[in-house]
Design brief:
alpha/beta, 7-stranded mixed β-sheet, Rossmann fold
Length: 233
Amino acid sequence: MTREDVEVNQSEEWALEIQRQLDSGQYPKWPNEAMVKVLFGGGNYLKTPFILQPEWRVLDVGCLFANNLLPFSEMGCDCHGVDIHPKMVETARTVAGKRGIQAEFKVGSNRDLPYPDSYFDLVLSIATIHYEGTIENMRGALNEFKRVLKPGGGLYIMTVAPKHEIYKRAQILGNHQFRVSNFDFRDGQKFFFFDTQHYFQHNLSEVFSDVETGRVTENLMKLPLDFFVGLCR
C-alpha cells in the first residue's frame, strides 16, 4: 500500500467518524477554550499583544464542525475552513449554516491549502499538525501555513503533549513518531510528536520569526488532556 493509499483510507475513516458524530449529535459545538483565552483574552496571556480585527480573513485548517470559527464569524471576520474529505466539508457547511456561522469551506490539508500566497490574517491549526507523520511533513505543513499568511499575520497552533492519554497509550516508534493504540478509530495511525515544549518552540521558530508557546494540561475524569499551544507571527 502506498503513502497515498494510506492517506485516502485515513480520510475515509475520518469521514465515517464525523458522520457518526453528526448522527448522534455528540460533536463539538463550542470553540476551543485555550484558543479563546489566547486570542480573545485581551492580551492577558501573551507577551506581545495580538489584536483581532473584524475585517480579518481567518482560516481553520481541519475545521470539522466549524465550531472554532464561531467567535470570528460573530465579530464579522471573513471565515474559511478546510478539511480532508468532501463529506467532511459538506458536514462543516451544513452545521455552520444551521448555526449561523458565515464561512466558506473547501477540501484541503495541512500541506495543500487551496488558497493563494499571503491571503489570510490568521490561520488556526488546532490538533491537526500531529497527523503529519514525519518531521519533513510537519515542517512542510508549517511552511504551507506561512505561505498563505499575510506579512504580519498569525498562526495559532495546538498539538498533543506528553501527558495526553492518546500518547500515554501509544506505541513509540522513534524519531518523534508514535502509533495510536487502544484509543479510538485512529488506532494504527502514525502521529508526529513534540516531546517537550522546547522542541515544539524550536520547530515553530525554524519557520516563524516571533513565537510564543505554552501548555494546557487538564485531568478530566477518565481522559487526561495535554496540549502544547503556540502563537506564531
